Amino acid sequence: MLSNRVVIILVTALAPMIWGTSYLVTTELLPPGRPLLAAVLRALPAGLLLVMLTRRLPQGMWWWRAVVLGALNIGLFFALLFLAAYRLPGGVAAIIIALQPLLVAGLASGLLGERLTLRTTIAGAVGVAGVSLLVLRADAQLDGVGVAAALGAAVAMATGVVLSKRWPAPAPLLATTGWQLVAGGLVVLPAALLVEGAPPPTLSTENLVGYGYLTIIGAALTYPLWFRGIRALSPTHVTFLGLLSPLVATALGWLALDQELTAVQALGGLVVLAAIAVAQTRPPSHARLPRGQPGPSVRRASSTH
Q1: Rounded CA gap, 94 and 20, in Å?
Q2: Cα dihedral 74→80→85→91 (10° resolution)
Q3: On the CB side of 34, how many CA atoms lie within 13 Å of its CA?
Q4: Which of 176, 272, 294, 295 is the most exposed place for a label (fewest CB within 10 A)?
């Protein structure tokens, strides 16, 4: 029998694995040159759907907290990631985003009182190395704006993940996820209109299928899984699972698009999996609990999600 913690890890891992399919969906089903529109249509309709299903709106301080979390976890992250991908060829953006577990570990140490261990630091460095082997190309060139955007995206989502743990929401998981998706979609919307202009007047059946997949599967399904993992696990452990996204994207490129898979890339994939496995080890029993979080026995008794 798998332990409850292992089950939560495996279920949470589904989110970044599904996000890894976004590249294939975007390139094969969506109109070209519209990544910000895809971000809006991925987040905003999914958020509205979850809000309608739960019939819960934020109250009190959760109006501004939902906006902050939605901007960090979704809106700013998507916008900066788009800019980084546009300015940085050769998978450089993915390598910089892979720094996120290390950023989360540092922020969790300062804001949540979690112990920053040597094991976590080494696993984070190994994860970055694995992603580098997986996606880096020999002709990759650095661009100052692109590097800054990629770092900004990593910092934004890392901060959002840690604050999601620091601010335990009183509302059901689906409701708080919906709030963040709506806020994130609204943050990206002005940038999409400014950079890409009005949406295409007509969409093909393939386009509609692609947008529908990103909305229902890529957001409405995956973000509740992701935030449920953050509620139940250490945010550092959760963000290591994000390294599965470039791994899945590379595998799908090989399987579905006949892209070359080299021995170096295969080695990189194994290194990524090793880093994730090492990072998921249970923290020492003397590690401090996140501020404002009850002990394990209290959490088990009060958990309703």
Answers
A1: 11
A2: -80
A3: 22
A4: 295
Hey, what are 122's tokens?
């080494």
Give the C-alpha separation, 35 to 79, whole Å. Answer: 9
pLDDT at 288: 45
Encoded tokens for 219: 């957001």
- Taking residues 158-183, what's their average pLDDT? 95
Q: What digits encode the pLDDT tens for the residues 225-269?
A: 999 999 999 999 999 999 999 999 999 989 988 888 899 999 999
85, with CB counted inside 10 A (0-12, 13-18, 19+), is buried
Question: Across 146-150, 156-160, 297-301, which has the greatest mean pLDDT?
Answer: 156-160
DSSP symbols for the chain: ---HHHHHHHHHHHHHHHHTTHHHHHHHHSPTT-HHHHHHHHHHHHHHHHHHHHT----TTHHHHHHHHHIIIIIHHHHHHHHHHHH--TTHHHHHHTTHHHHHHHHHHHHT-----HHHHHHHHHHHHHHHHHH--TT----HHHHHHHHHHHHHHHHHHHHHHHS--SS-HHHHHHHHHHHHHHHHHHHHHHHH-SPPS---HHHHHHHHHHHIIIIIIHHHHHHHHHHHS-HHHHHHGGGHHHHHHHHHHHHHS-----HHHHHHHHHHHHHHHHHTSPPPTTSPPPTTPPPHHHHHHH---
Under a CB-based contact definition with an 8 Å cutoff, are residues 240 and 275 in contact?
A: yes
Q: Give the pLDDT confidence of 14-59 residue by residue, as tens digits.
A: 999 999 998 889 889 999 888 899 999 999 999 999 999 999 999 9
- Please state, in angstroms and rounded to a whole number, the distance separating the CA atoms of residues 272 and 267: 9
